[in-house]
Every structure is written in C-alpha cells, then in structure tokens.
Amino acid sequence: EKLIKKIKVSGDIPWKDVVKTFLLEELEKVPSWNSDVYALILLGINGSGKTTSSIKLARYFNKHNKKISRS
Q1: Contact at 8 Å (CB) between 53 and 41?
Q2: Could you point out which of 15, 16, 40, 46 has its C-alpha 20 to 30 Å from the C-alpha of 62?
Q3: What pLDDT is recorded for position 53?
Q4: Which is nearest to 61 in space by CA: 39, 45, 32?
Q5: DSSP readout, 10-56?
Q6: Phi and psi angles of residue 6, each rounded to the nearest 5 degrees, phi first
Q7: What digits encode the pLDDT tens for the residues 1-45?
C-alpha cells in the first residue's frame, strides 16, 4: 500500500526510481548483516529465474551449514 501511494504521488519521477528508493529505505530498516537471521527478497518478472536462483541459494547455504526457511 505504501509503495502504491508513493508511485501515485511521484509526479514526473519514473516509477522504477520510486520503487528503487522505496526498497532501499525498507532495507535500511533490516537489522545488520552481522545478525544470525537474514532475509532475502527475490524480485523479477515471470520467467526471470527467481525459483532457480532461490534453489541455488538454498543449496549454497545448506552446503555451508545454514538453516533455511522459505516462504
């Protein structure tokens, strides 16, 4: 909802720039990478390889003895 509102009131600013700024602001709220818990967000259009990439990341983290939870 917040993002949609920002896009609607952005005026002449391209929507891609509004989304990029929004995501960067949200990521700043995420705890430090020194934390024991990490969240990865994979974004992309249909057919861009999100599922394949998530499986590769899961295998990588499993190989390095990290627990994984997918949503």
Answers
A1: no
A2: 46
A3: 92
A4: 39
A5: -TTS-HHHHHHHHHHHHHHTSPPTTSS---------TTSSHHHHHHH
A6: -65, -40
A7: 888 888 889 889 999 999 999 988 887 877 666 667 777 888 889
What is the token pair recorded at 4? 């949609």
Compute the distance between CA of residue 70 and CA of residue 38 in angstroms, rounded to an integer: 12
In the block, residue with structure tokens 């934390």: 35
Single-letter code of the amino acid located at 14: P
Cα separations (Å) of 26 from 51, 62, 68?
Answer: 23, 27, 22
What is the pTM assigned to this prediction?
A: 0.49
Tell me which residue of 11, 4, 41 sits closest to 24, measured CA to CA: 41
